[in-house]
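pls design
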């Protein structure tokens, strides 16, 4: 089975984007509660083996399909993974 494409590009020049870091922290907490290694979570979610670590460090931007896949494996709603992101996502237009 082919791994899901999880991001459009690596974040260059701003690897500590607060939205990505917030998502990564939440992902790590839930993954550790489930007793899964990064590699095992990636395998079960059909993602590349390095992906979970990159996500947890806030280094990559994830796709909606990958969020859904991770949530299914972790037995949470996709919204549980992105709840903490809301505070950082308000943009001035």
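designed seq:
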């Amino acid at each position: 089975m082919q791994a899901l494409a999880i991001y459009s590009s690596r974040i260059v020049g701003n690897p500590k984007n607060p939205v990505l870091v917030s998502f990564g922290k939440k992902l790590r907490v839930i993954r550790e509660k489930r007793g899964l290694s990064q590699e095992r979570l990636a395998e079960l979610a059909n993602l590349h083996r390095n992906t979970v670590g990159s996500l947890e460090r806030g280094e990559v931007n994830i796709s909606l399909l990958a969020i859904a896949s991770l949530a299914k494996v972790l037995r949470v709603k996709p919204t549980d993974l992105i709840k903490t992101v809301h505070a950082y996502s308000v943009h001035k237009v």
